[in-house]
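Comment thread on ticket #2218

A.B. wrote:
> Attaching the input chain for the structure job we discussed in standup.
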Amino acid sequence: MDDSIVQETPFVKQLAANDRPTRDKALSSLQTYLSGRRILTPLDLLKLHKGLFYSLWMSDRPIPQQNLANALSSLVPILPSDTLIPFLRAFWQTMQREWERIDVLRMEKFLLVTRRYVGATFEVLKKGGWEEERVRGVLGVFGEIPLSVDDVRVPMGMRFHVIDLWVDEMEKVGVLEENEECRRIQDVLMAPLLKLREESPTKTVRMKAREALNDERIPGNGRREPEVEEPTSGEWAGFAD
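C.D. wrote:
> Ran it. Output below, let me know if you need it in another format.
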């Protein structure tokens, strides 16, 4: 399978096919391509993700859409270690570029694939023992694109969606337990949201991040006092303590 195949319309159509054998064959070819290749340039990965984006765009029935979203996210665990970060960056760059073009009838399947990618990413980090350098690299991609503090190119809807699902996906990989190791991982994974809460120039983003950070599933949050809502510009915030 050479580079041109991932850009060809027939390949994209096969991934979006309603019949499972055709879809599975295309996915198997793509898995072989990704797992066996050691050097993929950023441009290669952007071209690949453009094709994957349009395969989901053309998928027009609920069950095939769900299956395809699951299949695309299943590519993340099979990647060679040196391809993981560039692959994820290309995915988020593609979503950033295309997000505001997604119409309301197609949005649900892209919300799903976004959730699946975050979940698959956390699973890879878990299986790798939450290795510090890899975690730092992955969170760097999140901080660079979907959870960027001040990049105005990031669609607000995409940023909000990632914030909304963040704790859900943490829970699925079992890091919301009350023990020392889980608390360490919680602190690391919640850092991008903490940065948004403290540094975002946009009030709605700060509030959304605060809401996620106060999720009752996070150990200790059930015992916290509720935070005072941030006043809007020009509003009296009451007397200072």
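A.B. wrote:
> Thanks. Noting for the ticket: The chain has ten helices and no strands.
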